[in-house]
Design a protein that fits this description.
single chain, alpha/beta, TIM Barrel, 9-stranded parallel beta sheet, 8 helices, 9 strands
Length: 211
């Protein structure tokens, strides 16, 4: 088992996925998400000028909030993320070299997995948490079946087709982290709309946590 950086004890394991956001929009969006109670924000690298957005987000957000990149595919991108101040790395796949470089920078990692082979490789490579993607295809039952063979203390996240409307379905099988993309943010959305969606997601998460 490779060295890892543990997933932090966040109040809510909700990751905002801001695919397509522009640098001029990031500060107001970060403010809205933090006010609503989000503590993890991801800017996918196929967004316009993503490292600029990440750098601005890092300067804007409180220190305890995870700020990072999604759709990270190459080691060089990990280094750029580190230079921008990011401390969260999310990938759509399992690339051990990318994970290990992120760990060497002290980053929290959440690689994307779909099969038992990928999930076990990610765990072996030092992942802090796993992102089952696309969760809507696997469904809670598929994730539950794979979860049975994974380390018991490894946080499990669902991403892809996930919203506050179906948190409960995944919660029942032990999923405690959710990545929210289009249900939370679409390019062009204003901060007030993002905040209202974020508040709704936080309320749904808190209701499950309280049960």
């Amino acid at each position: 088992m490779t060295a890892s950086v543990a997933w932090p004890a966040l109040r809510r394991n909700l990751v905002a996925i801001l695919r397509g956001i522009k640098p001029e929009e990031i500060e107001a969006t970060v403010d809205a998400l933090v006010e609503a109670g989000f503590e993890a924000i991801e800017v996918p690298l196929n967004s316009p000028d993503p490292f600029n957005s990440i750098e601005k987000a890092r300067k804007r957000a409180p220190g305890h909030v995870l700020i990072g990149a999604g759709t990270v595919l190459e080691v060089a991108q990990v280094d750029r993320l580190n230079d921008a101040g990011g401390n969260l790395l999310v990938t759509p796949n399992v690339e051990p070299g990318v994970i290990s470089r992120a760990v060497s920078h002290g980053m929290v990692t959440m690689p994307g997995v779909f099969t038992p082979t990928e999930a076990l490789l990610a765990a072996k490579s030092g992942a802090a948490a796993l992102k089952f993607f696309p969760a809507s295809v696997l469904g809670p039952s598929g994730i539950s079946a794979i979860k049975a063979i994974l380390p018991a203390n490894l946080p499990i996240g669902a991403v892809g087709g996930v919203s506050d409307a179906n948190f409960a379905d995944y919660w029942k099988v032990g999923v405690r982290a959710f990545g929210l993309g289009s249900s939370l943010y679409k390019p062009g959305d204003d901060a007030a709309l993002i905040r209202s969606r974020a508040v709704k997601a936080v309320a749904a998460y808190d209701a499950l946590s309280a049960e």
